Amino acid sequence: MTENSKASSRPTVADGTLSAAIEVDRLVKLYKQTCAVDGISFTLPRGSITGLLGGNGAGKTTTIAMIMGLVLPTSGRVRVLGHRMPEQSAEVLGRMNFESPYVDMPMRLTVRQNLTIFGKLYAVENLADRIARLADELDLNDFIDRANGKLSAGQKTRVALAKALINQPELLLLDEPTASLDPDTADWVRAHLERYRNENNATILLASHNMLEVERLCDRVIIMKRGRVEDDDTPDAIMARYNRTTLEEVFLDVARGRTNGAKEEAR
């Protein structure tokens, strides 16, 4: 099966069989006496790009880990591509992927070897062709046979993205996808993600501290603080509600507890 036929063979909205990409319902995670996630709920439609924002300790990483089925919720429910997580994770893990530049791949293996291993884990058909295509699209050819440990931070970020796209996922979870990249390369990666979403009707959940990136990419923004959802809307609507011209200003308002004043100014 070719990559195009693989994408076209997936169910479409016209089939009437598609559920939301992600459904989070009253999700709670306790670590002893600490409440990392405190009763959050949201639903992400397929084909959307959503930014998950919040300062350190806001609960973003724990939320993503529960969506992936890596962390068991204390209470509440998560469904991914119509399947309960983590109980039915085997049904969906091959249809999703995760990328973070802060999670290193084996250092002694070359880029090609790493991508080959991950491709085999996902049972990717025509794997050599898929790796060659990603190498062209993400500009990896100059170092594809170099050991991962000898790459620059920016090169590692591009390889991490290639790993995340190796199985042509329907759901892509991203943590700081353009970290360590120069502005030109970061802009190119953002354009690639937009194109990938449009060509594959993929759903992307993006955790980032780059507010300009979120404004450009995301249809919707979920802001978390102390384990709860502080706000949830389109970037333009959130900026208007806080009477701010950038998401960075909104982020600072939320982080510094100025949300009530900002909202009052907007009324």
Low-confidence stretches: 1-17
CATH class of the largest domain: Alpha Beta
User: Helical region count?
Assistant: 10
Please give the largest β-sheet.
Answer: 6 strands, mixed
Overall spatial form: globular
- CATH topology heading of the largest domain: Rossmann fold
CATH superfamily of the largest domain, by name, is P-loop containing nucleotide triphosphate hydrolases
Q: Give the CATH architecture of the largest domain.
A: 3-Layer(aba) Sandwich
Order of helices and strands: HEEEHEEEHHHEHEHEEHHH
How many domains in all? 2
Q: Give the termini separation.
A: 55 Å
Q: How would you state the average pLDDT, rounded?
A: 89
Percent of residues in helical segments? 25-40%
List how many beta strands DSSP finds: 10
Quickly list its features.
ABC_transporter_ATP-binding, 267 residues, nucleotide-binding, disordered N terminus, 2 domains, six-stranded mixed β-sheet, four-stranded antiparallel β-sheet, 10 strands, ABC transporter ATP-binding protein, Rossmann fold, ATP binding, ABC_transporter-like_ATP-bd, alpha/beta
